[in-house]
Amino acid sequence: WMKNFPEDETQQAVLEGLRAHSANVTLDKVGKAIQIEYEGGNYGQGRHDGSVRISDEDVRIYDSRYPGKHLLSHDDLPSSPDDLKWCLQSSNWDYGWDEEEG
Fold it and tell me: pTM above the 0.85 mark?
């Protein structure tokens, strides 16, 4: 599924979907995830820096203002950058907490 997310198009989806100032895409082929770090994004709670993580299980938004907490999408997993942009603009998100490590 990761091949369906070209770096440039995925970056653009986050820039547009969260109205971010900048975004940097990292592919984690071992962990089978795509991480997009962004600055100046907004999902409706004010401008902030954070990251979007796409895996074969879910899509999460991490807001740097709330360590250990994330937003979890309840929409279908995106299959393209256009789907990701739509997902980021959706209101179908709930808060989740990261499991304690160690």
Answer: yes
Written as six digits, the tokens of 32 are 């089978």
Non-local CB neighbours of 48 within 8 Å, separated by 6+ positions: 40, 41, 42, 63, 64, 65
pLDDT tens track for 31-78: 999 999 999 999 988 999 999 999 999 999 999 999 999 999 999 999
Instruction: Report how far residue 75's alpha carbon sits from residue 72's, in angstroms, rounded to the nearest whole number.
Output: 9
Spatial contact of 41 and 22, defined as CB atoms under 8 Å apart: no
Q: What angle do CA 62, 67, 70 make, to 5 degrees?
A: 35
